[in-house]
Design a protein that fits this description.
single chain; 11-stranded mixed β-sheet; alpha+beta; about 20% helix; globular; Jelly Rolls; Immunoglobulin-like; 36 strands
Length: about 650
């Protein structure tokens, strides 16, 4: 009995000692490979046992602290110059060693899908850049997506800091990588990216609950999701709506019935299939009010020289989901419209002569089909077959749209709590931000909401007015023949107005988007234009031309509108033509017509014979101002603008 008690006491003491030895812990940001911000007071923080003594050693300096009753501790290390790699050690009852620490510039990269857009989605477009990406001085810390409605989290989840190289860079934000590369190439200072973004999310999701109080609707919405019962009810409803829709679509799909061959194997009578053009949406080709499942097929002739060899089937972008078959065999699928379909076709499926491609398209709402102006081809050994043109289609099942589901990631303050607040102790150089698409329908509100976000983050980081650089919305959606109103133009206007805040900069990109893709692939120029803004705003290079021409004032002289501009750089110029386009002019009747225009020095003169007494001018005021061609001689596009303040489409929309 005595031996047993002694053994139990020994085990208890050993376990207690083990627990004590593993007391001090650090947030995930403070980990191997981290980049610390030069020239800013640095905080190191973490957790331990209440009252535990903690010491941090870095670059020969040791500082101490004692954890509070809540087990938290913070140590201010002071400021340091760029350099490294260094080692940082943290010692409590246990000791932690952080290796390969650099001191340089840290940028918080955030927003929605165009910031999230990873380099892996650009493997072909930027194959050379990826192959040459090895640079241990450029690093990313990718924050795992997480929302919180119970208050700010203490920490984030992440795989840690990653050096840029051809493997790791595939997970980097593409915009952020090109931004960081340009800055490193110029200043030779390590660059760290804290990448915290989430596709589709509105600005209100990234603002703290306290700063949302002036926005009554968002404050109420946040109060609602703070109740776990309400969140559960939302999730339960989402599940029912989604499961019911897919259950009905699957059961009703005539192309895949249990007791009959599927249409990708046995398509049925030929007269049951109707002609349709690919690419294109079926709603725009007479197949009205059909959500659900539509089957497509196309016969292609494969030359004998390519038979028996592997092929690649490229099917552009499909709205929304597809399952694709080649000669009756499954070759690939994707679940959303934002990814290029590239499917490998095994050699044994490629026959000489007639081959059949079958695509089962599932569309839950809005337009369904094949998105225009994307690649559609079958790449064979020694030949390429163009797949654009006539296909055949057959409706598998027509259903009502799926209906509204609550996305918790889009709810107010949730992403601030989960993906911003936990890192605000970490010193940064500034923020790069690419967001706004999800707020375009509420653009007037964004005039106040976006500045509120910037002010909020600056208050939380407690670093004063750090540089906040952002991307203006790209050109998107079909171009229109006549001038008119535009929610995207109004959102761009709100972004331009936000430049009134100190230490802000904007990259204008309405010339490098894609009308049919909300995720334009040219991320290199976006990063480059953000880097120019950083050179001016963050690095105080006042000689750099960092922006395109900015409208300043309007004067009416002799029936013509004379517009003055700032940021003209080496002077105004036009691209794609011999005169400025995309200018519209109106009189007191507020009816805009396309205008003639010419450059005179740092001014643009605008007129129309149909508007003898001009009152207002607009430039590039459209979702997709594809004709806009006014630049400065440094090649940066003029920022879209209007001289009027007439109410737009989004006035009062909240």
């Amino acid at each position: 009995m005595y031996k047993r008690i002694t053994l139990l006491l020994f085990i208890s003491a050993w376990l207690g000692a083990s627990v004590a030895q593993a007391t001090v812990r650090l947030p995930r940001l403070i980990s191997d490979g981290m980049v610390l911000q030069r020239g800013q007071p640095l905080k190191v923080w973490g957790w331990g046992a209440p009252g535990e003594a903690v010491a941090v050693t870095f670059q020969g300096k040791t500082l101490a602290a004692t954890t509070g009753p809540d087990g938290k501790w913070t140590i201010n290390l002071g400021t340091f110059k760029a350099g490294g790699p260094y080692t940082l050690s943290v010692k409590g009852t246990n000791e932690l060693t952080i290796k390969d620490v650099l001191v340089g510039d840290v940028w918080f990269a955030s927003g929605q899908s165009n910031m999230e857009f990873p380099m892996r989605n650009l493997k072909e477009k930027y194959a050379t850049e990826i192959a040459q990406s090895t640079n241990p001085k450029i690093r990313q810390f990718l924050v795992t997506k997480k929302h919180s409605f119970t208050g700010p989290l203490d920490d984030v989840a992440s795989d840690g800091w990653k050096n840029a190289n051809p493997e790791n860079v595939l997970a980097f934000t593409a915009v952020g990588y090109f931004f960081a590369k340009d800055l490193y190439d110029k200043y030779k200072v390590p660059v760290g990216l804290i990448h915290s973004s989430w596709g589709g999310t509105p600005a209100e999701a990234w603002i703290s609950p306290e700063s949302l109080k002036p926005f009554e609707g968002y404050a109420k919405a946040y109060a609602k999701v703070q109740d776990p019962a309400n969140v559960k009810a939302m999730l339960d409803k989402n599940k029912v709506v989604s499961e019911d829709w897919y259950r009905a679509a699957k059961a009703g799909d005539q192309g895949r019935q249990l007791n009959a061959p599927a249409w990708f194997q046995a398509p049925g009578p030929e007269d049951a299939w109707k002609p349709i053009t690919v690419p294109g949406y079926w709603e725009q080709q007479g197949v009205k009010e059909v959500d659900g499942i539509v089957w497509y097929k196309k016969e292609v002739e494969v030359p004998a020289t390519a038979a028996g060899q592997p092929a690649e089937l490229i099917l552009g972008y499909i709205s929304n989901q597809d399952s694709t078959y080649f000669n009756g065999q499954f070759v690939g699928w994707m679940y959303d419209r934002y990814n290029l379909r590239k499917y490998k076709v095994p050699a044994n499926l490629v026959k000489p002569g007639k081959n059949v491609i079958t695509v089962r398209v599932i569309n839950t709402e809005e337009n369904g089909g094949f998105i225009p102006d994307k690649p559609y081809q079958l790449q064979l050994a020694g030949a390429t077959i163009d797949l654009k043109g006539e296909w055949k289609y057959r409706i598998g099942v027509a259903t009502p749209p799926m209906g509204y589901r609550v996305n918790l990631a889009y709810q107010p303050a949730g992403l601030y709590n989960g993906m911003v607040a936990p890192v605000t102790n970490y010193a940064i150089k500034g923020v790069i931000w690419y967001q706004g698409e999800s707020n375009a329908r509420k653009a007037y509100e964004y005039q106040k909401l976006f500045p509120a976000l910037i002010t909020d983050w600056r208050a939380r980081w407690q670093q004063g007015d750090f540089p906040f650089l952002y991307v203006q919305l790209a050109n998107y959606l079909p171009a229109k023949d006549q001038p008119g109103e535009s929610t995207w133009a109004e959102l761009r206007e709100a972004q331009t107005m936000t430049l009134a805040l100190p230490a802000t900069g904007m990259a204008t990109i309405h010339d490098i988007g894609e009308w049919n893709d909300i995720h334009p692939l040219n991320k290199k120029d976006v990063g480059a234009r953000l880097a120019l803004a950083a050179e001016h705003v963050a690095y105080q290079d006042k000689k750099v031309v960092y922006s395109g021409p900015v409208y300043q004032r309007l004067q009416v002289e002799g029936g013509k509108a004379v517009l003055s501009f700032a940021n003209t750089g080496g002077g105004l110029m036009v691209k794609k033509g011999d005169k400025p386009l995309a200018f519209a002019i109106a009189g007191a009747d507020k009816k805009f017509v396309w205008a003639d225009a010419k450059i005179e020095g740092d001014k643009v003169v605008v007129w129309s014979k149909d508007v003898p007494q001009p009152v207002a001018v607009r430039y590039a005021w459209a979702d997709n101002p594809d004709q806009a061609n006014l630049y400065n001689k440094q090649g940066l596009p003029a920022i879209s603008f209007r001289t009027d303040t007439w109410p737009g489409l989004t006035v009062g929309v909240k």
